[in-house]
Amino acid sequence: AAARLAAEQEVENLSGLSPNPEKDIFVVRENRTTCLMAEFAAKFIVPYDVRASNSVDLITEQADIPLSRGAEMKGKCGTNESELEISWLKQAYTFKLLFLKEGHNTSHGQEAFWRLSRIQFTYDTAERTYFKDADNPGKHTASSHRLSALVTPAGKSYECQAQQTISLISSDQQKSVQLLLSEVRVQPFDITADFVFSEEHKCPVDEREQLEETLPLILGLILGLVIVITLCVYHIHHKLTANQVRIPRDRSQYKHMG
Predict the structure, then answer these.
(1) Per residue in 131-151, pLDDT tens?
(2) In angstroms, rounded to a whole number, what is the distance separating the alpha carbons of residues 38 and 185?
(3) 92: closest CA among 118, 116, 72?
């Protein structure tokens, strides 16, 4: 059964199709149908300790770890729970995302939505690409706590171009690891067309930025319309006033009329 499941499931890293070298694209397919898609640019900011020059004191340095192209991945799709796991540099780094589909009661009845419920990042400070002379090197795991992110109505994909920061707590002396996500498009459930996202649900930041971009245009159009209406009213009023017969105030001029 496990062999059959493995044969029916396909995972693909399509990052090479993205024009942005920092953006990765991942697809999970089961039974020849796409069941999970994710596109995003990701970077981890990880604090770690190094020995000072006196070999006694500890100094905290910072490693900036991007999600590398060509990373290995595996995924799992379910009715109410889906998972995406990405690893790179010989599994020195592993990035795992867990999605849940739930329902809640509203004034319109029961409504379903999905969310990113858990993030786990495992890293090895003995890896020398991003960690330089780490003190007491070894593997650590940074995890989210009571996470509810990317909340999206069921049947839609989540889209957010703006950068988002999610804090993770590390097993390395409870240090805070920062995950920076940007250019995100994710759908872990209810994909109706192969390799195609469903209708997008934009994040509040993108909606606000879009409003800020279009608001000056809208105000300019309204102002222009008000000016045009004012000029039209003035022109009509001036024309009507010019066509009226003027009655002289001096009664001696009446004899010249007719």
Answers:
(1) 999 999 999 999 998 899 999
(2) 6
(3) 72
Place of tokens 């009329």: 257
For the chain, give the number of residues. 258
**CA–CA distance, 179 with 195 (Å, rounded to integer):** 26
DSSP 53: T
DSSP 3-state assignment of 257? coil
**Number of CB atoms found within 10 A of residue 253's CB:** 10
pTM score, whole prediction:
0.76
CA angle, 22 as apex, 18 and 27 as ends, to 5°? Answer: 50
Over residues 229-256, the pLDDT tens digits come to: 777 777 776 777 766 655 555 555 555 5
Name the one residue in this structure whose structure tokens are 């003027």. Answer: 246
- Determine the Cα–Cα distance for residues 195 and 36; give it in Å rounded to an integer: 9
Residue 33 and residue 39: Cα distance in Å, rounded?
18
Contacts of 101 (CB under 8 A, 6+ apart): 79, 80, 81, 82, 112, 113, 114, 154, 188, 189
| Maximal C-alpha separation, the chain | 117
The DSSP annotation for 108-172 comes to TEEEEEEEEEEEEEEEETT-TTT--SBSS--EEEEE-SS--EEEEETT-EEEE-S-EEEEEEETT
Q: Where are the alpha helices (DSSP H) in the chain?
A: 2-8, 204-243
Q: How far apart are CA 118 and CA 79, in angstroms?
A: 17
Helix (H, G, I), strand (E, B) or coil at 183: strand
How many Å apart are CA 250 and CA 247, to the nearest integer? 9
